[in-house]
Description:
Blueprint: E1 32-34, E2 38-45, E3 49-51, E4 55-63, E5 80-84, E6 88-89, E7 96-99, E8 104-107, E9 117-118, E10 124-126, H1 133-151, E11 156-157, E12 165-169, E13 176-182, E14 190-195, E15 202-208, E16 211-213, E17 216-218, E18 225-228, E19 234-237, E20 242-243, E21 245-255, E22 259-260, E23 263-270, E24 275-277, H2 290-309
Parallel strand pairs: 1-3, 1-23, 2-4, 2-23, 2-24, 3-5, 4-6, 4-7, 5-8, 7-9, 8-10, 11-13, 12-14, 13-15, 14-17, 15-18, 16-19, 18-21, 19-21, 20-22, 21-23, 22-24
Helix pairs in contact: 1-2
Amino acid sequence: MLQLKFVASACVLALVGSAHAVNLGVANDFNAFIFGNATAQSGDSDGAVAVGGNWTTVNNYVFNAHNTTPNPTIGSATNLGLYLGGNLNGGANNGATQINSGRNAYVAGTVSSPAPLMNGGGTMFAGSAAVLASTFTNQFAYSSLQSSTLNGLSAASVNTSNPNNYSIQITNVGGLNVFNINGSQLSGGKTLDVIGGNGTETIVFNVSGTSVNWGTSYNGSRTRTLWNFYQATTLNVNDRAIQGSVLAVGAAVNQGQNIEGTLIASSLNVTNGAELHSFTFEGNAPVPEPATMIGLGIGALALVRRKKRN
């Protein structure tokens, strides 16, 4: 696994990233951006995946299952399907890993047998120096501060007067609309409806709670909604799919249902053949200022190191 080093001057909005990355930083170009380890019993991702630690496939997993955009580039690592800071493991059952659509896999560590199947002409780069430790460290600092910034915004409450059918009212048509909700209210088969607006709004939900069991159907835009699990250490997605991108920097995510957007998390465990669908975040959420990012450096580095040891 990469040994992360934080360089304050590098931790600015550029984030050593792809030309397409926007509001979520470099992670915006990926279906999932995981800071620690990831394990998959089975499943697939529509787009590219970045993992700072090890990836273990137990049965089978397909990266870039569909030839979706964007097509991430980080430094000299191009045409990315998988960008991995640790080892690529086949798993106890000799799990098969596939990288489709001619995308490349860059792995900083080792690649165990069986070798991944590279479909469409992509290349496996094992032991690659093109995987930059700073990419994960800088993205972690960026996402951490973005999560905190979003949680500090003035927010409306979700209307939960009907215990089974929630709603939000859009008041800033075409602009940023922020709502607060307790994570315990998102379990148990609820529905959440968007009222008003013209469909171009950015919708941010600040979700409180350290352990969240997702179970809500949501009818808002998948490309313009961001769920900010700013306190979560565990996020279980086993009841219903999440519609929209997920900012869960400190959370171990247990994914048994689909996620329709970008996932940013501490670790990932995929079960039940769950899929990551590539609905790139197109909203306009506040981003950290460069000066604040530099000031965050030491604390972010310490937290990343703690997570890597766990």
